[in-house]
Amino acid sequence: MANTILVGAQWGDEGKGKIIDVLTETSDIVVRSQGGANAGHTVIVGDEKFVLHLIPSGILRPDKVCVIANGVVIDPVSLVGEIEGLKQRKIKVGKNLLISETAHVVMPYHRELDGLRDHKKGKNKIGTTKRGIGPTYGDKAARVGLRMIDLMDPDRFAEKLKGRVRENNAVIKAWGGTPLSYKKVLADYQEAAAKLKPFVTNTVVYLHEAMNAGKRMLFEGAQGTFLDIDHGTYPYVTSSNTVAGGASTGSGVPPHRMDNVLGVMKAYTTRVGEGPMPTHNDAVSDLLHGMGREFGATTGRARRCGWFDSVLTRHAAMVNGFDDLAVTNLDGLDTCETLRVCVAYKVGRKTFEHLPNDKDDLANCVPIYQDFPGWRSSTENVREWKKLPVNARNYLKAITQLTGGRLKIVSVGPKREQTFML
Ligand code: GDP
Ligand code: IMO
Ligand code: MG
Question: How far, in Å, from the CA of 9 to the mean position of ligand 2?
Fold first, then answer.
């Protein structure tokens, strides 16, 4: 497929980074179009583990081009750190990375306000990654944000920054935080700006020229459908459009040039941060945490784990228009005797086959489960559909049918080679 949008079908951490890495082999350009350093995409190459935050996972293949497009919010200091970290590990970062000049910049006051605001919420906190994501998108919508193009012009940046630091320091003080030093912020950001300058360009023009030259693009979604600002479990969401539509607005590649939408979902459900999760289950959490799995790639927090929820993934298929599906972490269920799949919710006497919009309804949902027999054998060395235990095949058929979409990719371990296509 020429241009593919890859989207998480749950609450993030579906294994998108791993699948992007596999698919990059047959793509030319990998594009991040939303989110920021709140993302943590794990890719394992050989015995080396990489966690990408802002840079597209395609960077690990030196002959591919990676684009951080206009819809992403960029923390320049953290991006410089990520670039330098990769270079130290002998990963090429040069002409193969392009950064949009219209992407918004995450400032230290955004990070400070992110933490203070969530703390002030007390028991209603969102549990953000504290990377300044919400306040940066807030400033973008309020039309007071600073963009990469501003950062690249030292005088303009210094001038605009003065007003922004003054205004935000007043709020930081009022909320009991530590005000920022304009001079320090300016110095840190000018240093980062000089290092990022060679990468910053008009990525919309680049992507259109590449497209017209027949290049194949892979849009690397960050977060997941239910963290989307419009379609997620608001207010327990992030601040960008994580659904497939966000790939167009976040890159300037029009919807009719997108050929395929691939939904990535775990064979079970996880969530990190606050907010409802109807199929959360302590035994599933204990099982996966006991294997040392399901700890956040960005914050290290333990993810809540539970049974596969097809009400969620069906909704995700609807709003993203999944053509194909990738199921990851099948091996996580290898030891289960019985697997449960949520097929609907009950709230009082009402049954929901779609996600309820009322957050109290969602919080009170009781899952209605269908049970499947487990396969109780290791799948991590399986590389072919026909070699999977019959119960694993039946489980995969059921969850993809309940979701809606063709099963295209199965992942049975974190490594590149622990993957097979159908
Ligand atoms: P992303 O944010 O969607 O890229 O996912 P994360 O990297 O945050 O979390 C996914 C975790 O699952 C990482 O630790 C991956 O290495 C791991 N992973 C991905 N696919 C598989 C799989 O099929 N099996 C196992 N065991 N681990 C996987
Ligand atoms: P990837 O791309 C999982 C969650 C946070 C919090 C909420 C809002 O690795 O799948 P934010 O910092 O964005 O304002 O936090 O969203 N969250 C993620 N959860 N995976 C992610 O990214 C996430 N990015 C944000 O935990 O609940
Ligand atoms: Mg992640």
Answer: 13
